[in-house]
Structure formats: structure tokens, C-alpha cells
Design goal:
It is a single chain. The protein is an alpha/beta fold. The chain has two domains: about 5-170 and about 215-240, NAD(P)-binding Rossmann-like Domain (Rossmann fold); about 180-210 and about 245-280 and about 300-315, UDP-galactose 4-epimerase, domain 1. About 45% of the residues lie in helices and about 15% in strands. The protein contains twelve helices and 16 strands. The protein has helices spanning about 15-25, 40-45, 60-70, 80-85, 90-110, 140-160, 185-195, 215-230, 250-255, 270-280, 285-295, 300-315; strands spanning about 5-10, 30-35, 50, 70-75, 110-115, 115-120, 130, 165, 170, 170-175, 200-205, 210-215, 240, 245, 265, 285. The strands form five sheets. A six-stranded parallel β-sheet has the order 3-2-1-4-5-8, sandwiched between helices. It has a three-stranded parallel β-sheet with strand order 6-9-13. Strands 10-12-14 form a three-stranded mixed β-sheet. The structure holds nicotinamide-adenine-dinucleotide. Nicotinamide-adenine-dinucleotide binds next to helix 1 and strand 10.
Length: about 325
């Protein structure tokens, strides 16, 4: 069995932490990180193999898969929701053609594939509260269109060719390590930086916008646990709803105020990101993930806020 792991989008918000977690669990030389144009951190570069590739280029991906005899691909390279709305053609190319390249190479070289979908794969006609695992998916953002396409392609390659494809629908992800990459939920990361730096934050979503969220350690755990799950237990393969908490900007600000009482939030709504957020669920039902592979998050809003502020204050050297 081929055991080497390839991580695309390794310099991104998830990839930078997932790569290090995979190296810790399976060994540094087992995990090949691939970036695109952005400079990787010293940690990522020095802890194991690192390459640059364009994921929409079949030959470039194939060269790396052959060179390292890859058996597992964590495919994270993508254009996120707000950026996708500004450049829909690029989003289609990277998010859809990219996964198509990865799946075809996975079929040819017998690799398993993990790819994240998103809450963005839902749309305004989806039930908003307790959004079921299997429900209406008519997204109105280009990001959503590409994410549903990716979910379907992964299912197709599993059903038609038996490729071991697996994936989750992540909610907004929050981390103190790598800044968010241009999504609609980025406010929930930026707010912590600004709370420490300026004691105030101007939010681009309205105060009552409720969205699912997750702290990065849980997101990493979800990816690795799903890839290690017993295949016979998986009724779904791709696009498992996973969530850890849901909150509004106002509720998050209230949590931060418990640690930084002088913190103030104000609002200056960005119509594009507000429009995207309004088309997404308030809260997903992730019971299929729990039943099929034991999904259970470790962090809620309180524990996450305490950990975020503790670690960011060290990183920024600002006490509170
Ligand atoms: N971060 C979140 O809140 C979130 C939520 C739901 C789903 N997701 C999904 O998780 C995955 C990873 O997200 P992330 O937050 O780490 O994104 P990110 O934007 O931080 O990282 C994506 C990486 O992909 C790389 N990339 C872009 N175009 C490329 C190309 N043509 N070839 C090779 N690499 C390219 C970028 O350089 C970047 O480092 C994506 O599929 C995203 O849709 C993320």
C-alpha cells in the first residue's frame, strides 16, 4: 500500500496546519507539501519535502505524484468565497478543473483523496436551521457552484471508478496560525486580531448574521479522522456536514468582551459578503458524520475564544 501523502494548498489557512499535523502523525518525509505562489513558512519548508505546482496543470500534478509515489492526496488548493465572487472564471478553473485533475490522477495512480466542500455548497432554498446532510443544494455564489460540482465529481469518481474519495463541508474556520484566505467568515478571525491590536473592530457582516463555525484543531481532526475511518461504515463518502458551533458577530463580540471589556464592535456591511452569508445555513445538522465516523468537536465558542486570545497575544506580543 502506498503511504506517502500529498497536500495541495499547503501554504493556505488549513494546509499550513494540516501539513504539520500530518507530519507529526505519519512522519516528516511521508508528507509532501505543495504550494502555489505564496512563500511558505520556514516551518513548512524545513520540516519536510516542499514543491510548487499549478493544480489545474495535469502534467505538473502527475510529475509530483509519480516522483513521490503518492498514495493519499489532501486536496486543499482553491479560491475562497469572496475572492471567487470577484473572479468567477478563476474560481471555476481552480476549484473545478483543479479537482478534476486531482481525481483523474488519483484514478490512474490509485490514490485516495480528501477534499473539503463548504457551507457554501448550500443556497437560499436550502432549509436554514438544522440543515440536513442530504437536502436542496442550489447555491447562488460562484464558490457554491464550484463546491457542489466538486462534491458531485468526487461522488462520481467513487461510484464509477471506485476511487476512495472522502470529504467534509467545513463551516467558517478560525485559527491564530495562518490568516484566512478571502472567505465570507474571515471576520471571525480578524476580530480577534483587532480586539488585541485596537480594542475595536468594524465588521463587514450584520450583527445578526448567524453562521456555523469551527476552531482549526477540530477541522484538522475532522480531516484526519475521516481519512482513517473504516470505509465500510461510510454511507456517505463526500461532503459530510461538520460543525462545532454557530454564532452571530454580536455574540462573538460579547464573548471577547469577557476577556477584553473595553472591546467594541461596529458594523459597515459589505453587500457582496453579506449576500453570500445570507444564502448560507444558520446551523447544519452533522449527525451523519457523528454516526458514520464518530465526529465530535472539542471546541465551542468559549473555549475557542480563550485559546485564540491566549495564543494570539503571544504571537502579537500584546497582553490583555
Ligand atoms: N477556511 C475556511 O473557512 C473554509 C471553510 C470551508 C471550506 N474551506 C475549503 O478548504 C479548502 C482550503 O481552504 P483554506 O482556507 O486553506 O484556503 P486558502 O485560500 O487559505 O488556501 C488555499 C491555497 O490554495 C492555493 N492555490 C490557489 N490557486 C491555486 C492553483 N491554481 N494551484 C495551486 N494552488 C493554488 C493558494 O495559494 C492557497 O495557499 C478549500 O477547498 C476551501 O474551499 C475552507
Amino acid at each position: 500500500m502506498k503511504t506517502k501523502i500529498l497536500v495541495t494548498g499547503a501554504v493556505g489557512q488549513i494546509g499550513s496546519e494540516l501539513t504539520m499535523a500530518l507530519r507529526k502523525r505519519y512522519g516528516n518525509d511521508q508528507v509532501i507539501a505543495v504550494g502555489h505562489r505564496k512563500k511558505p513558512s520556514e516551518e513548512l519548508l524545513n520540516s519536510g519535502p516542499f514543491e510548487f505546482i499549478e493544480v489545474t496543470n495535469y502534467d505538473e500534478v502527475e510529475v509530483i505524484v509519480k516522483k513521490y509515489d503518492i498514495g493519499i492526496i489532501y486536496h486543499l488548493a482553491a479560491i475562497l468565497s469572496a475572492l471567487a465572487e470577484n473572479n468567477p472564471q478563476l474560481a471555476w478553473k481552480v476549484n473545478v478543473e483543479g479537482i478534476a485533475v486531482v481525481l483523474e490522477i488519483a484514478r490512474k495512480y490509485n490514490c485516495s483523496v480528501f477534499t473539503p466542500s463548504s457551507i457554501g455548497a448550500f443556497g437560499p432554498s436550502t432549509p436554514k436551521d438544522g440543515t440536513p446532510q442530504d437536502t436542496i443544494q442550489r447555491p447562488t455564489s460562484m464558490y457554491g457552484v464550484t463546491k457542489v460540482s466538486g462534491e458531485l465529481l468526487c461522488d462520481y469518481y467513487h461510484l464509477k471508478y471506485g476511487v476512495d474519495t472522502r470529504g467534509v463541508r467545513y463551516p467558517g474556520l478560525i485559527s491564530y496560525v495562518t490568516p484566512a484566505g478571502g472567505g465570507t467568515t474571515d471576520y471571525a478571525v480578524d476580530i480577534y486580531y483587532k480586539a488585541l491590536e485596537d480594542k475595536k473592530y468594524e465588521c463587514f457582516l450584520s450583527k445578526e448574521t448567524r453562521l456555523d463555525m469551527m476552531y482549526m484543531p477540530d477541522a484538522i481532526k475532522a480531516a484526519m479522522d475521516l481519512m482513517e475511518a473504516e470505509p465500510s461504515k461510510l454511507k456517505h463518502r463526500n461532503a459530510f456536514n461538520v460543525t462545532a458551533m454557530n454564532f452571530t458577530p454580536e455574540e462573538l463580540a460579547k464573548e471577547i468582551k469577557k476577556f477584553i471589556p473595553e472591546f467594541e464592535i461596529s458594523y459597515n456591511i459589505d453587500p457582496i459578503r453579506q449576500g453570500i452569508a445570507d444564502s448560507w445555513p444558520n446551523s447544519m445538522d452533522d449527525s451523519a458524520a457523528t454516526e458514520e465516523w464518530g465526529w465530535s468537536p472539542d471546541y465551542g465558542i468559549e473555549k475557542m475564544t480563550e485559546d485564540m486570545l491566549k495564543n494570539l497575544s503571544k504571537k502579537l506580543n500584546i497582553s490583555y
